[in-house]
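User: Last request for today: this protein with 2-acetamido-2-deoxy-beta-D-glucopyranose, please.
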Amino acid sequence: MDTLCFSNIVVYVLLVAGFKASMAVSSLRQSQNLSDASGTTLVSQGGNFELGFFTPGNSGKRYLGIWYKKIPQTVVWVANNINPIYDSSGVLTVNTTGNLVLTQNNTVVWYTSLTASAQNTVAELLDSGNFVVRDVDEANPEVYLWQSFDFPSDTLLPGMKLGWDLKTRLNRKVTAWNSPDDPTPSGFSWELLLHTYPEFFLMKGSDKFMRIGPWNGLYFSGVPDLKPNPIYDFNFISTSDEVYYIYSLNNTSVISRLMMNPTKSQDIRYVWVEAYKRWEIYQTLPKDYCDNYNLCGPNGNCIISDSPVCQCLKGFQPKIPQAWNTMDWSGGCVRNEALNCNNGSKDGFIRLSGLKVPETKHTWIDQTMSLARCRDKCLSNCSCMAYTSSNISGAGSGCVMWFGDLIDIRKSASDGQDLFIRMAASELDEERGSKKKLAITIVSILGAISVVLLLGFCCCIYQAQRKRKKTDKPDTIEEDQNRGESEDDLDLPLIDFSTIVIAINNFSSENKIGEGGFGPVYRGKLAHGQEIAVKRLSGSSRQGITEFKNEVKLIAKLQHRNLVKLLGCCTQRDDRMLVYEYMPNGSLDCFIFDDTKGKVLNWSRRFHIVCGIARGLVYLHQDSRLRIIHRDLKASNILLDDKLNPKISDFGIARIFGGDQTEGNTKRVVGTYGYMAPEYAIDGLFSVKSDVFSFGILLLEIISGKRSRGFYHPNHSLNLIGHAWNLWKEGRALELIDSSLEEICNLSKVRRCIHVGLLCVQHYPEDRPTMSSVVLMLGSETELAQPKAPGFYTKNDFTETNSYTTPMEINSTNEVTITLLEAR
Ligand SMILES: *[C@@H]1O[C@H](CO)[C@@H](O)[C@H](O)[C@H]1NC(C)=O
Ligand SMILES: *[C@@H]1O[C@H](CO)[C@@H](O)[C@H](O)[C@H]1NC(C)=O
Ligand SMILES: *[C@@H]1O[C@H](CO)[C@@H](O)[C@H](O)[C@H]1NC(C)=O
Ligand SMILES: *[C@@H]1O[C@H](CO)[C@@H](O)[C@H](O)[C@H]1NC(C)=O
Ligand SMILES: *[C@@H]1O[C@H](CO)[C@@H](O)[C@H](O)[C@H]1NC(C)=O
Ligand SMILES: *[C@@H]1O[C@H](CO)[C@@H](O)[C@H](O)[C@H]1NC(C)=O
Ligand SMILES: *[C@@H]1O[C@H](CO)[C@@H](O)[C@H](O)[C@H]1NC(C)=O
Ligand SMILES: *[C@@H]1O[C@H](CO)[C@@H](O)[C@H](O)[C@H]1NC(C)=O
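Assistant: Here's the final one, the structure of the complex with 2-acetamido-2-deoxy-beta-D-glucopyranose:
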């Protein structure tokens, strides 16, 4: 049985092979041993971890290590990583002085060095994954004689301290293996540098690779998305004795670890998903290009959404403009105006928001000083270049000051901190400066003219400029210490790729709930429980990442109870995804075109849905900040929430996809046959009125329970519009009503809806009402105009007129969004 398991595992996971069967013993007493040849292992009391000999990958070498007992080979710790054993002669013993000694053919390959010799010791593998040497009668963690947690390999487990024990000068850091075959420590590590204001780095050898940044009371400055979450709780402890990062798991049934990945040069947090028997990536560092240490040089600022990403801080300019313009940013930036420090303290500060604070190598810190005193102190020392609160928790407290160049600043993807940067007085108020220049010019020209007049003139300019300054919301405000972050940055709804991958189970087919014209849609659940729908945009977008994000930012601001809420977006290389709130009842087409589910939607519910869609469209067309023409309104794009309220989805997607943004003429037709207005389908002309046309079709579909496309009537070749139009002309409009609709009390209301529907589908856009008049018509009893002939009312209309532009087979049952490029 054991042999069978063993061979399965080897076949299944090639990472680590050669695990042997185990006996459930968790500890070794003095003079006992654990030998590779006997195949014995230690198993922690609760069965979480196992310690023994293993062979990583194809290396053929033997190592003493610890791995998860219940999870396919995931090694979390290695003892003799720099001294492999070449055969199965390895033996681990606890010798008489209490030290662990690992031998190969009686040659010592690895051992511990207890500070004091101990007589009565035991080495025990704990359920936390910690392998400890302790006095037999002493279970207090504070007095362990030795513990593996003090000597991490490539994995940080819950409860491990990452950082310094200042008393013993023990520096606990995590270091990646060389490769999955070779646990020799590579140069890639994660460690704490003990600056005045200590900060974590990812290092490659002695080179800084990514600065994680100092702890600011809430998170590490460079990792603002490290937030309270349902998986783990984290903390940073800084006392006179020790400085470290630690995390714990919220729920003992969740398994998570942090691991340094050598091949990807990433620090990855994994979460074990038992249902899929897989480690899923939860978070990774570095996150993006801007996380590269000091990418933009001294006094540069990395802004991932800008192009190029490196920008000089305000008040600075490229030191070597030629190099800077060819994307060699290493020279960084220098001040536009030298500081005036010793000349009467004319300097001041500008405040930049939403940043990762600069490297803290040359800093001074006081955890109790107020920000106002911090400012004064910085001003009084000519080498102080910037200051801010050392603790941003609550109202903010403490003082940290920077000396010399400001290194490795970036704009944070979310949140971020304020930084007050020292500036010469002349930089603090450019406007006042330009006023001066103007005044001087005027003086030279108008030298002879009355000084009184001139003063009056300047005064006016000054006042006008002051007024403008107040309303302009400038980037920076002189000596303003109370301004919040700019609204736009807070609104950028970026969601981490790994978060989405976990939420939707790595794009698994089980999570796929549909395939729209723009790509597949997946259902998922975020870690905090919110259900989401993720639309993965496929095909080539004409937009760059920045434009895409800007569009998403705009669209995300559209909020109306009849619009599906766009929660955010995610980009990963060429992948673009939109994340929406999840609608449990699916789309309207599943109801109205289904005999059984159709009964759920009685007439009053259908009317409620029609009105909701109309109001949502009014908002898109005229009430929102953007004028959005949907261009692909159809039953499958109307989603229903848990109370069967309609919500329009996919609005703005043409915009996000890089389509034309204003009313007019497009070469890129986006839409669905059967819903497209004639002028749009044929000539590519779109406007709010083409949406009104689609709404009219939708209205007729909701009433009739029949699809516009694929409508079939035994007696004639008309489509749904033509059929409705004929019935209307013959005064038999009510025959259009869906047979699954029973007990309609208000037939005149239904008749009115059909009437409105026909007004909406009139052939000429100028004859169609606007959506706001549609809302009025639906909600009142006023007289309505007689509809003129609709567009596209025989089946052949569309295909005949448009066949020469149709590059794809049209399947009459499949309703897909089409995108015709160059449809003219
Ligand atoms: C390990 O322990 C076994 C049984 O106690 C003993 O026979 C063997 O000699 C020991 N091996 C070493 C290398 O100490
Ligand atoms: C136990 O092992 C340690 C480390 O190898 C060594 O320094 C010490 O001398 C050993 N003690 C005995 C009694 O062998
Ligand atoms: C260990 O000892 C055995 C027997 O003496 C020998 O065959 C083997 O080569 C030795 N292994 C190593 C790595 O020295
Ligand atoms: C996890 O722990 C954090 C910190 O204690 C807490 O804020 C959060 O609510 C916890 N989450 C769950 C799901 O228990
Ligand atoms: C821990 O997770 C399990 C399984 O997901 C769940 O049943 C349990 O309620 C959770 N416990 C807590 C305290 O959140
Ligand atoms: C101070 O101002 C004077 C005159 O404006 C100038 O010559 C001198 O260089 C300035 N000193 C410093 C340190 O900026
Ligand atoms: C300014 O601060 C630096 C760093 O703390 C210190 O070395 C220097 O003496 C200070 N200068 C003055 C004038 O206080
Ligand atoms: C940061 O400030 C908060 C709230 O003012 C306080 O509770 C916390 O202890 C402070 N943290 C540090 C490290 O000083």
